[in-house]
Amino acid sequence: MLKQNILDKLNQQINLEHYSSNLYFAMSSWCQAQGLNGAARFLAAHSAEELQHMHKLFGYVNKTGAQAIVSEIAAPDNTFKDIKDVFERTYKHEQFITTQINELVSLTMEEKDYASFNFLQWYVAEQHEEEDLFKGILDKMDIIGLDGRGLFMVDREIGAMGAKH
Ligand code: FEO
Fold first, then answer.
1. What is the sign, positive or negative, of the torsion defined by CA atoms of 72, 73, 79, 85?
2. Could you identify which of 30, 54, 58, 134 might form a hypothetical disulfide with 68, taking C-beta atoms 3.0 to 4.6 angstroms apart as the criterion?
3. Would the CB of 101 count as within 6 Å of ligand 1?
4. What is the 148 CA–ligand 1 centroid distance (Å)?
5. pTM value?
6. Domains and CATH numbers, the chain
């Protein structure tokens, strides 16, 4: 049985993963509207991954006999300055999510809830990968540049990255 404080935090994380999905979906839509089809495809696939993260948490909570909660999802921004702004925000967002996961992991340690601690290790590893992924995209933009054909090449590169799982 989950302690109430851990259950509340897990439900908060469910909401955040859902928000992440919507944020990346909004970004995908903006990219599509700018003709950045590669980035749009990548972000739509990433939006679907975030839903998987949400479902995984949902399944865990319900398996403990507690109730996973569907709550109101904050509306994401729908306008962005340029493609760099989009990916700077994804990187910043993933760093925020990592902080939230770390807090959750600390709480499970404090409460000696080792089943939840163990379950959350997947998210610890995932956040490490996601930060690396988005940082890598920002690095590509710096190397290739966004002037002239640079934007076209960056978009193509991002589109070729596809979804991880
Ligand atoms: Fe669910 Fe991108 O972390």
1. positive
2. 58
3. no
4. 32
5. 0.95
6. 4-164 (1.20.1260.10)
